[in-house]
Design brief:
Elements lengths: L8 H13 L5 H4 L9 E4 L16 E4 L1 H7 L11
Antiparallel strand pairs: 1-2
């Protein structure tokens, strides 16, 4: 997370909005009937793929650390599609 964008006021504000919108619950876990606290806001379309999507509500989803690791194959998990 070395991108300076993640320290911007715009991101911090949007991140908090998305967590509140999702009730601070992991939206991936909810698909399976589990209630897991979310602390991460994930970009469905990654920044490097489309910068214009960086603050769009429909491109952001709250997830727990375990699910975020699964979303990113480079972190050893399998790719979850949204």
């Amino acid at each position: 997370m070395s991108n300076p964008f993640y320290k911007s006021k715009a991101w911090r504000s949007k991140r908090e909005y998305i967590l509140k919108r999702d009730g601070y619950q992991c939206q991936e876990c909810r698909k399976y009937g589990k209630n897991t606290e979310a602390k991460i806001v994930h970009h469905v379309i990654e920044l490097e793929d489309d910068w214009t999507q960086r603050l769009k509500n429909n491109n952001l989803v709250s997830v727990c650390a375990a699910c975020h690791n699964k979303i990113h194959p480079e972190k050893g998990g399998h790719k979850i599609k949204y």
